[in-house]
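Can you give me the bound-state structure? Components:
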Amino acid sequence: MNAHEELVRITNLRVHFPVRGGIFRRAVGSCKAVDQVSLVLGKGQTLGLVGESGCGKSTLAKTVVKLVEPTSGSIKFKNQEIAGKRAQNNFRQNVQMVFQDPAESLNSRMTVGAILEEPLEIHKLVEKNLRSKRVVELLEQVGLPASAADRYPFEFSGGQRQRIGIARALALQPELLVLDEPVSALDVSVQSQVLNLLMDLQSKLGLTYLLIAHDLAVVKHVADIIAVMYLGKIVEIGPAEEIYLNPIHAYTKALISAIPIPDPTKKRKRVIIPGDVPSPIDPPKGCAFGHRVGASLYPKSVGMKFNMEEISTGHSVLHCPCCI
Amino acid sequence: MQKGERMKTDTLLDVKGLSVSFETDEGHVQALDSVDFQVRLGQTLGLVGESGCGKSVTALSIMRLLPKPMGKITSGRIDFQGQDLLELSPDGMRQVRGNEIGMIFQEPMNALNPVRTIGDQLSEVFLLHQEIGAKDAWLKSVEMLNDVGIPAPDVRVFEYPHQLSGGMRQRVVIAMALACRPKLVIADEPTTALDVTVQAQILDLLQTLQKQLGSSVLLITHDLGVIAETCDEVCVMYAGRVVERAPTVELFANPIHAYTRGLLSSIPRLDRTPKTKLATIDGMVPSLSDLNEGCRFAPRSGKVHPQNLLDQRSPLKEVSEGHWVESCPLCLNL
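Here's the bound-state model for the whole set.
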């Protein structure tokens, strides 16, 4: 980890949304979407964020690209504080996002060429007469023919549309790409094409990825570091291999065992987690996971303060009496 | 001969030469092209394939729920317990649907009526198919909710779908599908909309209930992991056809069709070396409105097919016991 220059450092990040109620729409509570999250992402690395829906993965991603303002905590990009300030143009250039559903994140009334030119225009990066050349370059980079520039998004298949989404994110030559479920809307055979493209681009352009996915097998394949989120908190973070071979937190263990393995000769005992993720508006008093599974040690965790504890280099886990 | 007879008796559902077409604005679309498969008593058959390959159309055809008037079954038969479902009157079909064949849909929120309580919707199944009174139907509904593992069923039964989580809603849909102890359950992507942890719960529940009731299951999914963990037999579909059919263990150990092989090697797996290039299948799923008669996988197989293979469909061939594959010589890997 030390070999990598630090690109993003998130410290004690909190994103709380007010819950409004009553006649005057006053804030009657708060939804702790992201709660005390800290992580470091080195240049050229891929950090995979996994967790069930509603655990705060997407909110965290949106906060990193400044689409959501944090409640407290700090996000440093290249040692510059970005939380709470107006986004500098060069920050917007350096951090780009690829969205989950390519059909909905591309303007259906614009040609692909216009979609790819727009960021160049806004940031005044490329002279007007050279823009179309850059567009062709971008299309080539993601494996699409130059003729695609004159066509509209609906003329492409899901996988090709996601390539356009990636090309758009690359237009400004960013250093960090935030990928929010980039392959979950795609078919299996196309999914592997897009994953290969992402891995290629990373090694060619030295990109850093913050990858959000619910498919652990995908994350394990491309990520260097995996962070497991549960109810707004990171419960375990560490090198990808390490998380798989030696998961410490009960939630990580259960999550791994829940993935169906495409090999019928391997019959294993699945750990079934009962119940659902509790509501972040009214979280349990103690350990949120222990509460869900009805751990016998749960009462011990009530009112406790949870801290991350380092197990081995770079592998930390949320310390809690009922889950470790 | 003896073997043939046994096969006959323990086959619950026998789909033979099923072809379905749709009339759309863009013209005639053939969604299914002579699909054959059997579901045996007490077993689970998996239908796997990418979007647009005809998995869901197969399920809807069996239930005779194809959208009218666009969707039409052009040929074939669907024998359920020896009776061709396609010959039943609409009334006769209503007796089968929800009673002897239950269906679980992908998106539980769309499968439930948002303005009626859970209990109301569940009792309806009993009232339609069994001769019992409203009160008994209600009691049976509560019992059913309990069976599918919903906590405090006597309270939940008064609630509306929006008050339940995604996993709970899917449990309700399962309860509805299994209410009349159907002989066959068709589950169309039952866990796709759910998280992995909830998916594990639901698959576990389905397997337990299947054992209890002795039902057969037709499971439709695009997830080969789910297939490997739950199915006895698998049909791989591509562009409206079954290209390979085999017992699960055999299919995973010895895939023969190039598409099956491509599919199996392109999924990222936990036990693969990370960061390596994943195998891919070039190109994309062909559009259904413009299909050739012969090998449909040809453009993606990486092998140039001579015209006769593109024009004429190669028949399904049995390569080992119970293992059938579309015998296009260039797509086979024996």
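A couple of observations. Chain B touches chain A through 46 residues (CB under 8 Å). Residues 2-100+180-270+279-326 of chain B form a domain with the Rossmann fold fold (CATH 3.40.50.300).
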